[in-house]
Specification:
The structure is a homodimer.
Chain A (H helix, E strand, L loop, with lengths): L12 H15 L11 H8 L3 H14 L2 E4 L3 E4 L29 E2 L12 H14 L1 H4 L9 H14 L9 E4 L2 H12 L5 E5 L4 H8 L4 E7 L2 E2 L1 H6 L4 E4 L13 H12 L5 E5 L24 E6 H4 L7 E4 L2 H10 L9 H12 L2 H28 L4 E4 L6 E6 L5 H10 L2 E2 L1 E2 L14 E5 L8 H11 L1
Parallel strand pairs in A: 3-14, 5-6, 5-8, 8-9, 9-10
Antiparallel strand pairs in A: 1-2, 4-11, 6-7, 10-11, 12-13, 13-16, 15-16
Helix pairs in contact in A: 1-3, 2-3, 4-13, 6-13, 14-16
């Protein structure tokens, strides 16, 4: 008769009996098809209630360690000797989440926006309102493209501020542009070749690559992506940022825009992905109309994100699909659930439609305009008007500084790191071979402490 | 001299001048390289201030419709005749978001949980607390795998309730399991073949397909997936639900689990994806330990979601990667941002670590246990113990009813639809050829109104 010591642990009697028997089956001490004692007999032997033994037996049957036969009782299952086979290697669990590069005093290479500027109290109030007043809506599953109210708010915003007139059904909401790029590859397919700008946002190549989509690049001239290189790349999808190219800051002029649209109209399978990631932060003049607003042929896929204009910790982006792609999306990919929770979709819808988004953007624009002026002033003073040139300063939250120096880009960067200053060069953003040293440095000023900025500039000046 | 009527619209003078000139450049009325009037001359002619004309000219230069030459003034850009080229087809924008199938009185085919049970007031309170007290944390970007607190809370939960002991660094948080499947395909690659269960959750095949991953299926016997078919499929990844297979309800017994693990240990590239989607709702006995808890060889990828156990409108799921895959993930895919907003990650972390998740699950289990008893009672009464059999009723929120009927599955379904009753058959969940008519129907009772349930059963009984 099975006998176990049930006094040792704090576990319930049922659990101890279950674990002891399971161990005996696993180890082979109880062999396959052996008859188990009856519930009554085991209960008597262990001095527990029959119900306790019954619970343990039931659980062991559920998990497949015992089986029962009507009127004959319980038997040991044949679990083979597989359990006793050695696993292929010992488990050590040596995993490290990669840490962020150590913080420096000045990081001009980071394009994060200052988080203090997120309109937290308004957002928190709207979220509380949504939670209090919209309980029923919040618990209804969103359409695959996002909740109606948010798509309507985005549609209205696009009409007022980007000159784009679309149907809310064309707007697809998702948890970040990276997610939407994946969705686009699923929609358009991996037979198409995707072309990005060179220099450009190198992460895009990694994203297309990890989605199994062939990705090539085309060079730029002073108007933006070169149509001849786009053609010779064999790509049918051009992924560009015409309002504000990163990192050169180029704003694509009308002529090149029409040329690019004409390229797209030549063939049914050509599309332009317009990544409008920081158009809200154009600091001079009126915003440049989106390429999508000039597209009478329905070939521009417009993309934008609130993770840039609000805070990177809110993961909401959207894309506007041309009619045929929108219909294909609903036909082919509507089984995918929308990746943004309804709580945040309703909060953002209220934030936009009640005018807070516009206010926020205007406030940020005024703030960054002042900051930019102050930064330009410091540079002028420190450099006394010599040995530098400022390029492309109007269109977003970074500018490019060209230094007159004998150091190579790499040496200058290394020497600045020693002084706790990190700076990226335009040549860092080239895929393939970078051109000869340009001495052009990115100055992201969105996240820079203006008070100590003169210190950084003086340190750079001394080095040159 | 250019003359425009500036009295017609409500737009600002600057905007009207800008729009009129832009239109003239586009239409060719102003021809390429034509010299524009000086700002002063045009201002006089239109009777506006020079600053107004300057604004309009600056904007037109930004957009590339004009260019300026120092000391010579402004000229019309050459935008070619591309703008006047016809787009390839007229835009009609006929897009319809697919509607949900019209609601019926009874939909036994839907497995949604009752949304009234979401612990809204606790969730709302925690969210308010997070918003009030955690402002700083909320605005710090989360690690690619999710915020530390949430991964720790999930790790603790898994140790207590699923017998799985892991390092929080192995836990990857994402916006829904569908998103995590895509991430897994990116991690493991599309050279591997993925095998799902047949019958099974057919959406999985669509998901693998849309991610470009080859997907095959293997049949089941009464213990779950057949190892012989898994072997002959050539797959190296087995995607299964051992705790509660959908739709058959099979709980994989220990013997098959060990057999499956042994299969995985045979080759370095084999993995098992354990989709534990409704293990929380096991209504009889103790929960079945997860397959991952038996895996000494680090080959099980464990997956679960809060969208099922809480509400489908909150998109938070997670997977637990074996050590080698976790390291590969951080090496290869850490450039992807976490897709869940920090607001909800912190709220969920508090919800779990303060014990509310456990309480919620226990409450739901009691509730569904009662509901299930009531449902079984109604079925017994209506059918008077005849012409039906109930299969697999213990393990989750659905059971399978086998009817004694001469109708084909298809005919019975059609006749029931006429009576506003939708029911799915097990044969609906087969890929490839379904077996002969089994007359087995799924009864999802998670979303069924118990008060009118007898009406539905009587209608079915009458039909048979």
């Amino acid at each position: 008769m099975l006998t176990y010591d049930l006094t040792g642990t704090k576990d319930s009697l049922y659990k101890q009996i279950y674990q002891n028997i399971r161990e005996d089956v696993r180890s082979g001490k109880l062999s396959a098809h052996e008859k188990m004692p009856s519930k009554r007999a085991l209960a008597q032997n262990l001095n527990v209630s029959i119900v306790t033994v019954e619970h343990a037996y039931d659980q062991l049957v559920s998990e497949g360690y015992l089986y029962s036969r009507a009127r004959r009782g319980y038997f040991v299952s044949d679990i083979g000797d597989l359990e006793r086979r050695k696993p292929p290697k010992p488990v050590s669990r040596d995993i490290r989440i990669p840490e962020e590069a150590p913080g420096l005093l000045f990081d001009f290479s980071s394009n994060r926006t200052e988080r203090e500027h997120f309109p937290f109290s308004v957002w928190a109030r709207l979220m509380r309102e949504v939670i209090s007043l919209r309980e029923q809506d919040l618990l209804v599953k969103a359409p695959c493209s996002g909740v109606d109210e948010l798509r309507q708010a985005i549609t209205d915003h696009l009409a007022s501020f980007r000159g784009i007139n679309v149907d809310p059904a064309q707007v697809i909401v998702g948890a970040g542009t990276e997610y939407l790029y994946s969705l686009l590859v699923k929609l358009i397919g991996t037979d198409s070749i995707y072309c990005i700008e060179n220099p450009g946002y190198r992460k895009l190549m990694k994203i297309y690559d990890s989605n199994g989509a062939p990705c090539v690049y085309a060079g730029l001239d002073e108007q933006g992506i070169r149509i001849d290189q786009l053609r010779s790349s064999g790509a049918s999808i051009a992924h560009i940022s015409p309002t504000h190219h990163f990192p050169t800051g180029i704003t694509m002029p009308a002529a090149r825009r029409y040329e690019l649209l004409a390229w797209a109209y030549e063939s049914q399978d050509r599309y332009i992905i317009e990544d409008d990631y920081d158009s809200e932060f154009r600091l001079s003049g009126k915003p440049i109309p989106a390429l999508a607003s000039m597209d009478a042929g329905d070939r521009v896929i417009y993309m934008n994100t609130f993770s840039k204009s609000l805070t990177s910790t809110i993961r909401i982006s959207y894309m506007v699909l041309p009619e045929n792609l929108a219909n294909l999306f609903y036909k082919k990919l509507s089984f995918y659930s929308c990746t943004v929770s309804t709580f945040e979709q309703y909060t953002l819808a209220a934030f936009i439609s009640q005018g807070y988004f516009e206010k926020h953007i205007n406030r940020m624009r005024r703030y960054y305009r002042k900051k930019r002026e102050k930064i330009l002033e410091v540079i002028r003073e420190v450099f006394d008007g010599k040995d530098y040139r400022i390029l492309e300063k109007d269109s977003g939250l970074h500018m490019i500084l060209e230094f007159n120096t004998n150091f190579s880009d790499r040496d200058l960067k290394a020497k600045l790191e020693e002084k706790q200053i990190r700076i990226a060069t335009v040549s860092d953003y080239y895929m393939g071979e970078a051109p000869e040293e340009t001495h052009q440095f990115l100055l992201n000023y969105s996240n820079i402490d203006i008070e100590s900025f003169p210190y950084a500039m003086k340190a750079i000046r001394e080095l040159l």
